[in-house]
Amino acid sequence: MSIDRMSEFARKLEPAGRILESPDYQVWCCSPIYGPDGKVHVFFSRWKNHYDHLGWVAACEVAHAVAERPEGPYEVVGVALSGRGDNAWDSWSIHNPTVYQVDGRYILLYMGSDGSSLGVSQDELMAMKREEYLPYFHKLVSSKRVGMAIADSLYGPWARVGDKPIVDIGETPSWDDFCTSNPAFTVTPEGKYRIYYKAWDQRTAVKFNGNRKYGFAESDKLEGPYVKYQGNPVIDLSGFGERMQVEDAYMWHENGKYNAIMRDMGFNNHEYGLFMQSEDGIKWNTETPMISYLNAAHYFDEPLIGLEREGRFERPQLLMRDGIPEYLFAAYVGGKYNTSSGVVLKLK
Fold first, then answer.
1. 166-178: average pLDDT
2. Between the CA of residue 345 and those of 10, 70, 319, 339, 348, what are the distances in Å?
3. Which domains does the chain have, with CATH numbers?
4. Average of pLDDT values for 170-197?
5. How do residues 220-252 score in pLDDT, each as one tens digit?
6. Which strands sit side by side in the sheet containing 314-321, from one edge to the other?
7. pLDDT tens for residues 105-136?
8. Which domain of life is it from (predicted)?
9. Fewer CB near the last or first residue (10 Å), C or N of the chain?
10. What is the rounded end-to-end Cα distance, in angstroms, of the chain?
11. What stretch of H or E contains 126?
């Protein structure tokens, strides 16, 4: 890979280690923030190991851990959000947490799923063999929607905003008529609240499990309602190939520009991250993205033993100080329990 394609962000990265390894849980989606106590608070997805990796959409909750420094060690202090049960839109799984301080409060954006109409319980589902489970898995994926919770303290309690998704799917046919997930958040220079979200449509969902693109919705009030931008999607790589796509975006505004890091799904390969910039958060340099991080083996000397998703980071999130990225947090399979955990990289 040409050194010219490496972003300044990527050039600064150096490994700091794994965090939140657990003998009992798969860990994913580690979203960090500095608290008023000076400690590092991480909100992360977790689900019981016996559910295997595909349990993320059926039996996940968002837990809260605290450490004196980004590298840990971390103490898990509680569960921030879990499925509401009954037939709520987020009845089963709560996943994709991303945390921000906004206007003196804290917000958690997340993805929720609803399995209330499947006719089986979560335990029954997770006892199935993989082939038996897959049809239910795809139905759960189609139920994914974006929600928001707000708290005055990082220790909660977290109050969900309304009884409906903060970003729902679009009408059929549209680019986001299958599901919405993987949210990211910024406050625009004009003072508007903007939620970026990943989505795909029913047509590509049937054809090959979906072409993932990004759009955004905006509001004058933090709690919404959020109105989708009419020109969505704003990040779309399908013009380079039907299956070329991105996911797991984290957005922030710095030095007068919108910045985004995200997981590459075909532009270079499936192991790197992409780095994009935009003057307005609408027109991104999708034709000339740079690299935000390399494959995991470049930073961590761990054997690759054939685990699903090994060799790559997913769900990149940033620990910011005064609006400047200090650390990259990501999810990575493997580790001492051969499951999944968080990893931390420092921007030197």
1. 98
2. 10, 9, 10, 20, 9
3. 3-347 (2.115.10.20)
4. 98
5. 999 999 999 999 999 999 999 999 999 999 999
6. 13-19, 339-347, 324-334, 314-321
7. 999 999 999 999 999 999 898 889 989 999 99
8. Bacteria
9. C
10. 22
11. helix 122-126
Instruction: Please report, as a single letter, which amino acid is at residue 273.
Output: G
In angstroms, the CA 163 to CA 88 distance is 8
The beta-strand segments (E) located in 103-173 are 105-112, 145-151, 159-160
Q: Position of tokens 């693109």?
A: 213
Phi, psi of 160, rounded to the nearest 5 degrees: -65, 145
| Structure confidence at residue 2 (pLDDT) | 53
Across the chain, mean pLDDT equals 96
Q: pLDDT above 90 covers what percent of the chain?
A: 94
Tokens 């990225």 found at: 325
> What would the two tokens of residue 92 be?
């089963």
Tokens of 10: 């990527």
- Residue pair 95/56 in contact by the 8 Å Cβ criterion: yes
